[in-house]
Amino acid sequence: MSITNKLAAGLGLALAVSVVGHIAGGYAYLQQRDASVEARADLRNQQGATEAASLAANACSESVEGLSVSAAVMASQLEGSRNAAKQQAGVHFGKADKILSTPAAVPGDACASAQKRVQDILAARGQKGGG
């Protein structure tokens, strides 16, 4: 084999090694580029999910604040109702105490006493409604 043949064979081998190296480098570059594109897409998706979660958390916080305000308003409204009910209960307790402390209308006959009381109550109601 002559020197030119050896030189051509060496250059051919070097060229083949260079082509293989460039192909391997190109393949590695494409793999890295694909991984980078996928990572960017994942990052965008995660940012979207983070924004959605943040919006949901803000909406939840606003709802909780709204419920807190509503609860405070209702508590103040119910306080008035509680006071009115307490006053009305006092009136009823007074009536019950009067009934329980009143002696029997017909001594010795609980049934006749109860009937007399009912008649008196109905008569009092009739007077209030008619007058």
Task: Describe the secondary structure blueprint for this structure.
Blueprint: H1 3-101, H2 110-130
Can you tell me about this structure?
It is built from two helices and no strands. It is an all-alpha fold and 131 residues long.
How many angstroms separate the termini?
143 Å
The secondary-structure class comes to: mainly alpha
Low-confidence stretches: none
Beta-strand segment tally: 0
Put simply, the count of helices is 2
Helix fraction by DSSP (H/I, runs of at least 4): over 70%
Strand content: under 5%
Shape: rod-shaped
Average pLDDT rating: 88
Computed Rg: 49 Å
Largest sheet: none
Helix-strand pattern, N to C? HH
Question: What is the gist of this entry?
Answer:
With 131 residues, the chain is mostly helical. Helix content is 92%, strand content 0%.
Write out key terms for the chains shown:
single chain, 131 residues, mainly alpha
